[in-house]
Amino acid sequence: MRLAADDVTRSLAASWRLLRADAKALPDLDLSREGFWRSYLALVLIVPSMIPVLAAERTLAGLAGGGLFDAPGLIGAIVTAEILAIVAVPVLLVGLAPNQMHEPRFTGFIIAWNWAAILSAALMAVPATVFALGWSNPGIAGFQSLAFAAIVLRLRYCVARAAFGSRSGVAGAIACASALADYAVLRTFGLAGF
Fold this sequence. Notes:
194 residues, mainly alpha, 7 helices, globular
């Protein structure tokens, strides 16, 4: 299984359209079984977004001198936190409703969630980049992170709404659960939240 540039372009464009509450973007994703596994492979595209986050977290921790990759514990915390932020809500849904795992709506949700995670990581890298470059102080960076987190929350809500429908109320619950999960992950690892 490989990831073609056309798949990436189409899927990221669909994620962007989902952010704009265009539920018709969901079928633009590859909703097949192969597309399901390919969406996990695509999560490798999050790695570039972790670099500004690592730089910002190093700056906050007072590790500005030295090489970017000199703190393996911090790297491990960022990578683990990113993975947990992506899988927390789907795992919670599987735990709460295991019979839904094989439903097309659930599969579509996971595929859209994974592709949206790439866009989410890129959005959160913006305030991290600004802070790491020294263009903002911790207070401004925190405010910027909250603003971008609100955009990410909207994206997650729109993904859930496109997958599960607007009447079920599931989208709001998923958005709230994702915000709580993100907060718990950040506090657990002592990260700033870029």
